[in-house]
């Protein structure tokens, strides 16, 4: 897993050297302020998700073993399998489309000549 290299404090305290034709310091500061806000939001999300993981692990440990059984396949899954088996393949669709284009555009080309 990747490690976090900078903290919000590191970003805030970063100083850049000012050269003859350097970057606009206010623009850099505004950009870094935006990065710091995003970084704080990411840290909050990570903390919340880690808490959720801990809660779910505890819930899984305390859950009765019978409740962990696999649920039966729903009707929607059966319908999707049936439709997938009877549906046309991409090749069939492209062949039909090709015939339609020949009919439509073939007549237009003959009329334009």
TrEMBL record:
Transmembrane segments: none annotated. Its main location: cytoplasm. Gene3D superfamilies: 6.10.250.660. It comes from the Bacteria. It is found in: Cytoplasm. Keywords: Cell cycle, Cell division, Cell shape, Coiled coil, Cytoplasm. Residues 32-59 form a coiled coil. GO terms for cellular component: cytoplasm. GO terms for biological process: cell division; regulation of cell shape. Pfam families: DivIVA. HAMAP family: GpsB. Divisome component that associates with the complex late in its assembly, after the Z-ring is formed, and is dependent on DivIC and PBP2B for its recruitment to the divisome. Together with EzrA, is a key component of the system that regulates PBP1 localization during cell cycle progression. Its main role could be the removal of PBP1 from the cell pole after pole maturation is completed. Also contributes to the recruitment of PBP1 to the division complex. Not essential for septum formation. Belongs to the GpsB family. PANTHER family: CELL CYCLE PROTEIN GPSB, CELL DIVISION PROTEIN DIVIVA. Forms polymers through the coiled coil domains. Interacts with PBP1, MreC and EzrA. This is Cell cycle protein GpsB. The lineage of its organism: Bacteria, Bacillati, Bacillota, Bacilli, Lactobacillales. The gene is gpsB.
